[in-house]
Design a protein that fits this description.
The protein folds into two domains: about 35 residues; about 35 residues. The termini are far apart. It contains four helices and no strands. The protein is mainly α.
Length: about 90
């Protein structure tokens, strides 16, 4: 035997019927706090502040990163060349 019951009600009515709390005021307060924090942090989103936070040393930090990339690239290129030379010697 199968019994089905259809109940038409709004989410607020269902929440009240089941005894669940109304969380809308809490959600509104949390969203307002989130908006306030995001607005306050928008100052830190300008490009100059982002670059300062990413590279605190400034130009010297960029030069160090560039040197690291170049040394890695030249190291990979030189190992590829020496690897091809050793293959030729084996043949």
């Amino acid at each position: 035997m199968k019994i089905s019951v259809d109940v038409e009600c709004s989410p607020e009515e269902a929440r009240a019927f089941l005894g669940l709390p109304n969380v809308a005021p809490l959600q509104d307060a949390m969203m307002q706090q989130l908006q306030d924090r995001m607005s306050a942090n928008m100052q830190a989103m300008d490009m100059e502040s982002l670059i300062r936070s990413w590279f605190p040393v400034g130009v010297q930090g960029m030069e160090q990163i560039q040197k690291a990339f170049w040394s890695a690239a030249t190291g990979a290129a030189s190992s590829a060349l020496t690897g091809s030379d050793s293959k030729k010697r084996k043949e």
